Amino acid sequence: MITSRIACPYCCTVQTFPEGNQCRECGLEVPEKYIRYAREQAPVYLSVVGMTAHGKTTLLNSLTLALDNIGKIARKQRAYVEALDDFTLAKFQDIRGQTAEREQTTSTIPNPGLQQPLVLSLNKFMSEGRQPVVIYDLAGEAFSDRAEIQEYAAPLKLAQTIWFIVSLHDLEHENTAYSSIADLFNVYITGMERAEANPHGRNLHVIYTKADKLTNQLDQETLEYLREDPYTNLAEQNPRELIDRQFDEEDYVYQMEQVDNRLLEYTEFDVTGGTTFVNMAQDYQMALSFSINTAIGRDHTPNNRMIDYRAYRVIDPLVWALRKKTDDFMPNLRPVEVDKPGYMSQVALILDTGFSSKNKIYGLELPSHLFTALSGLGEVATYYIGTLSPMTQIGYEPANHPPTVEYPPLIGPILDQLHEYSYILLVTSQTIVDLIDYHSSEWHERMAIVTFETIYEVRRNDAWPKAHVFDRTRTPVEQCKDIVDKLFYKSR
């Protein structure tokens, strides 16, 4: 999928970058390669969450080191990783030095506001071309106070996939405020909701860290999977020794899926709070998956040197994320049959959030009225403009009060992830800046626009084909039914 709408990796504002590479929101210079690669392939955005000392930063460092050597196991594809900004390049260099000296990694320091993610391109690994990847390492302390999580709202809203880092050993044996995986999940979910980062429909990948401390709890097959990792310590392996162990995506993913099934069963039956956690994640319609690793292998000595360095199965989380990269935020949007036999529809209601929309859209309770009218087409996902995920659970009636945040007047982030046969109703009281990108597209037939002043023009004297001016002299209930009938049913 080719896209022109790209998120600034530092402030997470979605935009088109029509000229140059300066972010219009934070003013920072976004790497030119990142923008160019993102126009070829939509970036994979990852948010990594985990309590302090659960192994989050250590895992990321071990994964980064493995990616630095990814070409050793994908020689045929000529795969390699490329750091796209100075921070990421410096991080790669630091990790190489720390590993060579067997130094202990330090925990992530809370850094609210602008982020310093890893911004990289994974070239020709599980991809035909250059796959931009942006990884946000959120400090564990940020989740200790649910109010503070709002400072980290932007990367949580942006990420398609959340890596949920859990050390079961630390939950059971360390003196922490949370004693079960369900407690941890509740903290993160509450924090995301307070930050208006809707968790519904996202990929939630649970990563059990410090597996070396779970040897008495895991089944034999899972232990063997860990120990037989062919790519442990890639930095120290000679490429000649890996000629017969080249990466086979189909085989590797099949093995991961077997472990995923076993870890799901292990979580439900053997992990404290596991059943509650799985039920909660499914209730939030999150695509749940599991992996397990050990990123060190043994404890540190008193002088902070590693006794041994063994990183097992650290690439699994990234393989899961790359496999999920084409998934949108509506995995449970089930198309339903409407008036034509065999005809199936998916529906998105997109609502303006600008200041002028408060009385015009929300004051007239149009979200709920239009939702009801559109429900005859299929299950409705309701979005705010400029966002990536639905504002409510799919199929649930939206609230009639405006959000506390004004989102950018963009529809591309939503359209880029919808199925080509979706129906869209956009309700706006302002100009949508990227609508011109769709001026000559298939969305002419499947997207309608409701405005409040004049027929909506993409550009001067060039109206959008399916546009309707809301008549405030008529009752909202009656008119909303007529709008949907006119713009969708009668036009088919």
Describe the fold and architecture.
This protein is of the alpha/beta class and 492 residues long. It has 15 helices and 17 strands. The strands form four sheets. Strands 4-5-6-3-7-8-9 form a seven-stranded mixed beta sheet, with helices on both faces. Strands 10, 11, 12, 13, 14 and 17 form a six-stranded mixed beta sheet that branches. The chain has a two-stranded antiparallel sheet with strand order 1-2. α6 packs parallel to α9. It is globular, with a radius of gyration of 24 Å.
Strand order of the largest sheet: 4-5-6-3-7-8-9
Helix percent band: 25-40%
Total beta strand runs: 17
Overall 3D shape: globular
Q: Please give the alpha-carbon distance between the first and last residues.
A: 27 Å
Main sheet summary: 7 strands, mixed
Radius of gyration: 24 Å
Give me the secondary-structure category: alpha/beta
**What's the number of helices?**
15
Question: Can you tell me the residue ranges where pLDDT is under 50 for at least 5 consecutive residues?
Answer: 297-308, 326-344
Strand content: 15-25%
Mean pLDDT, to the nearest integer, reads 82
